[in-house]
Amino acid sequence: MASETARYSDLDLAEFKEIILNKMQKAQSDLDLIKSAYMNDLNNGTDDTSPTFKAFEEGSETMSKEANSQLAIRQEKFIRDLKNALFRVENKTYGVCKVTGKLIGKDRLRIVPHATMSIEAKNLQR
Questions:
Q1: Residue 71 counted as domain residue
Q2: If you average pLDDT over residues 9-31, what whole number do you get?
Q3: Residues of the signal sequence (predicted)?
Q4: Cβ(99)–Cβ(124) under 8 Å?
Q5: What is the DSSP annotation of 67-83?
Q6: pTM for this model (two decimals)
Q7: Is residue 3 assigned to a domain?
Q8: Which residues, other chains included, contact 109 with Cβ-Cβ below 8 Å and sequence gap of 6+?
Q9: Considering all CA atoms of the chain, what is the largest pairwise distance in Å, rounded to the nearest integer?
């Protein structure tokens, strides 16, 4: 009889699923906020001011949009990672380090619920 791979109990997985769902909800609302700021093209009333100030304003707006775009990309990746973690919860492989095959510590998973490697494996990468 083949020995079963170490995994978290269904009770533990339910706890992690709750954490992941909460993080996903917050991440999605943060992403919506970032996107609305990015899409927001309100005129800040610089039409009647000096051309120099308007140029600074437009440059600042461009930088702000680029920063928001980068934030949105990172947030989308975070949401995708959380969805993948949820998938691992459903197929009961959640919390198993992809490098060592050992369980990732519960404290680490509570803080970084989309982690796929243990601290031990992370340190080996350096």
A1: yes
A2: 97
A3: none
A4: yes
A5: HHHHHHHHHHHHHHHHH
A6: 0.76
A7: no
A8: 16, 19, 95, 115
A9: 81
Lowest mean pLDDT among 5-9, 38-42, 102-106, 117-121: 38-42
Please give the tally of structural domains in the chain: 1
In a domain, 68, yes or no: yes
Comparing 39-43, 94-98, 106-110, 111-115, the range with the smallest average pLDDT is 39-43
For the residues of 7-39, what is the DSSP string, one character each?
Answer: ---HHHHHHHHHHHHHHHHHHHHHHHHHHHHHH
Dump pLDDT digits (tens) for 30-84: 999 988 877 764 445 545 555 555 555 555 666 677 888 899 999 999 999 999 9
Structure tokens at 94: 């959640």
Query: How distant is the alpha carbon of residue 65 from its chain centre?
Result: 20
**Alpha carbon of 61 to those of 39, 48, 57, 74: distances in Å?**
11, 17, 6, 20
